[in-house]
Amino acid sequence: MSDTRTAVVTGAARGIGAAVAKRLAKDGLQVAVLDLDEAASQKVADEINADGGKAIGVGCDVSNEEAVATAVERVANELGAPTVLVNNAGILRDNLIFKMSADDWDAVLNVHLRGAFLMTRAAQAYMTKAKFGRIINLSSTSAQGNRGQVNYSAAKAGMQGFTKTLAIELGKFGVTANAIAPGFIATDMTAATAERVGMEFEAFKAAAAQAIPVQRVGTPDDIAAMASFFASDEAGFVSGQVVYVAGGPED
Ligand code: NAP
């Protein structure tokens, strides 16, 4: 263990989470790469370690209360008190409301909202003790409403209220909470959406780019850059904010 800060990034075996984990490691933090599949998490951790950082892979379902408690304790023991938390794990179960099953509603709410709640409750114990903490939650432009995503947009709007309340409750302990609301980011998640609507991913991205003011879709590194700022010492007076990282104004 060392004095170096420890971050936990959920859903970090790929996509945005993996980019955030790698960026925080470059910023000098130790990183727990947490995802459902421990082997996939360890692969990202190995890449970070090979690049001169320090990381461990942790297998954990963020919606499982016991698994979360065990995982966060393991991070504290193996790396150090987790004082930076990025709640990034997410899934899609898109459908129009008349066709959406209750299971698809529950699955999405469980991973995004219950998962963020359980991870944050476990990690804030270390943050408040350390009198320092940075909580970064992944919302989405879909929080404003998006056809076929009643479950996901409700979860992502919920992440914003969750973030603001954390900021109010935990501020006096030196803990900030902020949300990043990405627009279209090229990852497996958006590739799956392209497949669902029957489009080639390249054509899907090109069509999306046309509607974005900066005329391109986002990359996981665009989100990692924002997470890097929110996680930093110098961001200590920024709390309870939702930043749309979407290539244009969204709110
Ligand atoms: P992604 O490529 O699908 O990656 C999500 C990761 O979360 C996967 O590794 C997945 O693991 C993991 N995960 C799912 N359920 C989990 C659980 N119960 N416990 C732990 N890990 C779990 O998605 P992404 O595009 O990088 O998105 C990351 C976050 O950004 C999500 O919260 C998403 O909603 C948000 N976001 C993305 C976009 C976008 O355009 N991509 C836009 C706005 C917001 P498996 O691979 O094992 O399923």
TrEMBL record:
Ketoreductase domain location: 5-183
Taxonomy, superkingdom: Bacteria
InterPro entries xref list: KR_dom, NAD(P)-bd_dom_sf, Sc_DH/Rdtase_CS, SDR, SDR_fam
Pfam families: adh_short_C2 (PF13561)
Keyword Metal-binding: no
UniProtKB keywords: NADP, Oxidoreductase
Record-level GO BP terms: monocarboxylic acid metabolic process
Example GO molecular function: oxidoreductase activity
Family: Belongs to the short-chain dehydrogenases/reductases (SDR) family.
Alphabetical list of PANTHER family matching this protein: 3-OXOACYL-(ACYL-CARRIER-PROTEIN) REDUCTASE, 3-OXOACYL-[ACYL-CARRIER-PROTEIN] REDUCTASE FABG
Name listed for the protein in its UniProt record: 3-oxoacyl-ACP reductase
Organism: Luteipulveratus mongoliensis
